[in-house]
Write a structure and sequence with these properties.
Elements lengths: L8 H13 L2 E2 H12 L3 H14 L2 E6 L2 E6 L3 H17 L3 H11 L4 H17 L1
Antiparallel strand pairs: 1-3, 2-3
Helix pairs in contact: 1-3, 2-3
Length: 126
Amino acid sequence: MKKNPRISQAEWEVMKVVWDRAPLTANEIVDELAGRNGWHHRTVRTMLNRLVKKGALRFRAEGKRYIYRPNIAKADCVTQEAQGFLDRVFGGSAAPMLVHFVKNAELSAEEIGELQRILEGRKEGS
């Protein structure tokens, strides 16, 4: 797996908007995040610039507008973040993490069934 740049929690909010709706102008991103989070337009523009410098976003100029697209895949970032969390909190071991979440999360019957299917599939594939 390619190493993606480290993205802060606030930058994740920007990336989620871009991943979900790209291509977007800077103003569209600002409007979305200002409305949702109450962020000032300069804050959002600073994060856009930071994400471009980190290589997470790319843009092209169209006249005076900048059009943004993700430069990294959401799935890759989620995998990297999940692995970092697993390493930091559970010493890299998935089983204690799964046990913790299953014991402490409110799961519907459908979610429990899905977990059982996944585990059975892993058991059969091993």
